[in-house]
Design a protein that fits this description.
The N and C termini lie far apart (45 Å). The chain has a four-stranded antiparallel sheet with strand order 4-11-9-6, with no helix packed on it. The chain is mainly beta. Helix content is 9%, strand content 38%. It folds into two domains: 3-45, no CATH class; 54-146, RNA polymerase II/Efflux pump adaptor protein, barrel-sandwich hybrid domain (OB fold (Dihydrolipoamide Acetyltransferase, E2P), Beta Barrel). The chain has one helix and eleven strands, in the order αβββββββββββ. The chain has one helix at 3-15, and strands at 20-25, 28-34, 40-43, 69-73, 78-81, 97-98, 103-109, 112-117, 122-127, 134-135, 140-146. The chain is elongated.
Length: 147
């Protein structure tokens, strides 16, 4: 797929008020998504069909490194929020213990607030993004020392 074809798809999305478009041509896959301001984000389409943003599974961590550190990845494109509201304390901080169901942050995607759970047990050793920072699909959000 060349740049002109992508531009044409973006134009059609805007004209027809489409929020998301996934296309597969042989081995090539592309996902186009319009953000809250109408801008279009381009990225590779996930290998499995995506469900609603709220129920999207978190990205599987990379193969376990030799150490006991694991990463929590962003399951979607959006905006990272460390707390449920601007005046609230963050969900977690460095040194916080987390479990499988611990909410670690919110990612806002297309005006929907998605709570992201740790899905691993351990202790937060690094927060890799800042509050209100845009994040990409698969981007590392936290590093966790597994217990």
């Amino acid at each position: 797929m060349n740049l002109e074809e992508i531009r044409e798809l973006v134009r059609l999305m805007v004209e027809n008020n489409l929020g998301e478009l996934d296309i597969t041509e042989g081995e090539n896959k592309i996902r186009l998504k319009r953000g809250a301001g109408g801008e279009v984000m381009v990225g590779p389409a996930p290998l499995a069909p995506a469900g609603p943003a709220v129920a999207a599974p978190t990205a599987a961590p990379a193969p376990a490194p030799a150490s006991d550190l694991r990463e929590i990845h962003s399951p979607m494109v959006g905006t990272f929020y460390a707390a449920p509201s601007p005046e609230s304390d963050p969900y977690v901080g460095v040194g916080a213990a987390v479990g499988q169901d611990t909410v670690v942050c919110i990612i806002e995607a297309m005006k929907v607030m998605n709570e992201i759970k740790a899905e691993i047990s351990g202790q937060i050793v690094e927060i890799c993004v800042k509050n209100a920072q845009p994040v990409e699909y698969g981007q590392v959000l936290f590093k966790v020392k597994v217990s």
